[in-house]
Write a structure and sequence with these properties.
The complex is a heterodimer of chains A (221) and B (375). Chain A has 221 residues and is an all-alpha fold. Chain A is built from ten helices and no strands. Helices cover 79% and strands 0% of the residues of chain A. Chain A is elongated, with a radius of gyration of 20 Å. The chains are: A mainly alpha (221), B alpha/beta (375).
Chain lengths: 221, 375
């Protein structure tokens, strides 16, 4: 191994992988929560929705579209003052989280909206005919019936997030992207870049596998 | 097979809870009283600049314990109409009272509680695929805030009632269409409603399954004294289970009355077409003239049955009473909730006097007799 990858410090790589996983998982949880809220608002306030509201729908749709349009590398820079205000620094894994969540949540929100639209209107009507409250419809009908699509949506989003963590590495967020850039690219030690790439691919595969397993398990259609 | 069916029927009856038995008792007193009164009910949709009256000034009274059919072609407004009753669609104007309570003035919370008293089943069943059969049936009970133990007990009864024992843990995707609709019916009955709305409940099912679902509906109508409002575009559904029927076209009720009356005396063009769906077109039948040609002796009779099932054994009674020969040449008789409806062509031969006596005998029953002669 040492001959094949002369410049690789394996302990550093374990730490870097840990940072990537940390950022990915925490950002995934944040994205899940924020994305679900935004997606639900988009769905519920849409024309013919349960809480039809043109103004609110327009505002949320605009926010989602704007943040989806900003390239992630630029979004990080735009959010620098905000992260500095939150954490006192813009370096480190924690400092990357706001940008990761704000970058990924609008994307997931759209996937949530699409997933909810796929829920059979008749089933919602049936719940209404039984006298269900809107909250019951949201938690017991909409989210439950859309669950496979919500899970595969968060899988796709999480994989995009893994890519984002590598970009966040450029501003010193830590993780495999950071490591590949500073120790691999700037020093021209391309064996490091290669190993980091393989590790990221493995992480992506693992997330995809877990996502697919859960989707298949809960899909009873 | 037959015995098994009877066994299950008896078993299902015995699973009725105390409340249900009490309810049944109440229904014998209440049956026939007014369940639903609808007056001047209208629903207007705006489509861009155009306005469409999906439901146009409907007036109806539906008695407790009756199966009331609403028939119309697609676009006649019947689906909108049934949704106005539980306010899944908000009426533009008019009034609806269900069990003496005005629906149109209820606020959101009271409407939700009132809806728990009105079951509804749908053409495409609208089950939650993420829930098992039991969980689907338990859903309205969860909404109504029923305790878990009581919920499980009730679900068990309902599964027995609709004949789905053994399928409790199955998911809707593992069921056939008929089984799905049985789940739909069980779910609609969970909160012991007094009214059941059926929106094209059999239109997605094959003829055989349709029949089994229809007999289940008749069954629960009799057992639970449930009032049923049924929307359909198939006349045979009306013929088989309804007591009264309204025919809709362009948002209006063009004709209404007892099923037999509509069959024997349809006045509106649309009603006539629907009756033809079941009875066939008059010109498809062999004419009286051609029938007469096959008859050289005796007499040709046309017997018209309009309700009253006591006359079902009429032919054999006549044959036993009089020493004459009876030969059925042609017939078209359908069973309705109020008895058989249709006509029968019979060739009668024998001693002239006896033939006349037999005819007089038939005339004394409720069956109409017409002696067909040449010309």
């Amino acid at each position: 191994m040492a001959e094949l990858f002369p410049n690789v410090d394996w302990l550093d790589l374990v730490v870097a992988s840990g940072e990537t996983l940390y950022m990915t998982i925490i950002a995934m949880i944040g994205t899940l929560i924020l994305g679900l809220i935004l997606g639900l608002i988009l769905y519920l306030t849409s024309p013919d929705g349960l809480w039809e509201n043109k103004q609110l729908h327009f505002i949320v749709a605009a926010i989602v579209n704007i943040f989806r349009a900003i390239p992630f590398a630029i979004l990080i820079i735009l959010l620098l003052p905000f992260t500095t205000f939150l954490f006192g620094t813009f370096r480190g894994s924690n400092a990357a989280l706001p940008a990761l969540i704000i970058g990924a949540a609008p994307f997931y929100a759209r996937l949530v909206e699409i997933a909810l639209r796929e829920v059979d209107k008749g089933v919602i009507e049936a719940a209404e005919s039984m006298g269900a409250k809107v909250s019951t419809i949201i938690f017991k009908v909409l989210l439950k019936e859309a669950m496979p699509a919500l899970v595969s949506g968060i899988t796709v989003t999480t994989i995009a997030l893994i890519g984002y963590t590598a970009v966040a590495g450029m501003i010193g967020a830590g993780g495999l992207g950071d490591y590949a850039y500073y120790y691999g690219f700037t020093r021209r030690d391309f064996d490091i870049v290669f190993v980091c790439t393989v590790l990221i691919i493995i992480i992506v595969f693992v997330f995809q596998l877990i996502g697919d397993l859960i989707t298949n398990k809960i899909d009873k259609r | 097979m037959r015995e098994q069916e009877d066994y299950y029927r008896d078993k299902r009856l015995s699973v009725l809870s105390k409340t249900e038995r009490r309810f049944l008792l109440g229904f014998f007193i209440e049956r026939g009283s007014q369940m639903i009164k609808i007056s001047q009910l209208s629903k207007r949709f705006k489509l861009g600049m155009e306005q469409i009256d999906a439901v146009d000034q409907i007036n109806l009274t539906i008695k407790a314990g009756e199966i009331f059919g609403v028939i119309g072609y697609s676009g006649a407004g019947k689906s909108t109409f049934v949704r106005l009753i539980n306010r899944l669609e908000e009426p533009t104007s008019g009034s609806i009272t269900v069990g003496g309570e005005e629906m149109t003035t209820l606020n959101k919370k009271d409407l939700r509680i009132k809806r728990q008293d009105i079951g509804m089943i749908f053409q495409h069943f609208n089950l939650l695929w993420s829930r098992t059969v039991s969980e689907n049936i338990a859903f309205p009970l969860e909404i109504a805030g029923v305790e878990k133990a009581e919920r499980n007990e009730r679900v068990k009864q309902l599964i027995d009632l609709v004949g789905l024992t053994g399928k409790e843990a199955a998911y809707p995707s593992q069921l056939s269409g008929g089984q799905k609709q049985r789940v739909g019916i069980a779910r609609a009955l969970a909160n012991r409603p007094k009214l059941l709305l059926c929106d094209e409940a059999t239109s997605a099912l094959d003829p055989e399954t349709t029949d089994s679902i229809l007999s289940l509906l008749v069954d629960i109508n009799k057992k639970l004294g449930l009032t049923i409002i049924l929307i359909t575009h198939e006349m045979h559904v009306i013929q088989k289970i309804c007591h009264n029927v309204a025919v809709m076209e362009n948002g209006r009720i063009v004709e209404q009355g007892a099923v037999l009356d509509l069959f024997s005396n349809p006045s509106h063009q649309v009603t006539k077409r629907f009756v033809e769906q079941v009875m066939g077109k008059p010109d498809e039948e062999v004419t009286d003239e051609t029938l007469l040609q096959s008859v050289s002796t005796g007499k040709l009779l046309k017997l018209q049955f309009i309700g009253e099932s006591t006359n079902q054994s009429l032919i054999s009674q006549v044959a036993k009473k009089f020493a004459i020969e009876l030969n059925i040449l042609q017939g078209n008789i359908k069973q309705t909730q109020a008895g058989p409806y249709g006509s029968l062509y019979v060739h009668i031969t024998g001693d002239d006097q006896l033939v006349d006596e037999a005819i007089t005998y038939i005339q004394s029953t409720t069956v109409k007799v017409e002696v067909i002669k040449h010309g």
